[in-house]
Write a structure and sequence with these properties.
By secondary structure, this protein is an alpha+beta fold. It has four helices and five strands. Helix 2 (34-54) packs antiparallel against helix 3. It is globular. The two termini are 13 Å apart.
Amino acid sequence: MSIWWSLHLRREAASVPLARRLLIGTMETAGVDPEISYDLSVALSEACANAVEHGGSRASGTSEAYRVTAYLDGEKCRIEVADSGPGFTRTQDLRPARPDAEHGRGLCLIGELADHVHIGAKPGRSGTVVSFDKILKWKKDPSLLTA
């Protein structure tokens, strides 16, 4: 089974649970194991929260958009969150934040929940792209086999 979708979302906090619910619904419909779905949904929430907080300039008074794309193809799910913010000058380390830090834990959490993470920019474009993937496991539900 192959499923692909892409969302263009406003950089508003309300967009984060929207993206998360869509991903969970897609994976539930496809028959993905709930633990894998949960891990990916938390990682997606962290990536979206970063895009909302850091993904552009609010100086103009407008709320810029960011993009979420999910690919479920065969045995793997790949998710990309792209924004138009200042971007990174280098790939960021995915090391844990200090225990007393109030910020900076999201990228590390994504790194722990996904099998592979890449943080960078698309060539010729400003902004940051956080992409991560995970090998899928499937529910052991006999009703899915007869559908």
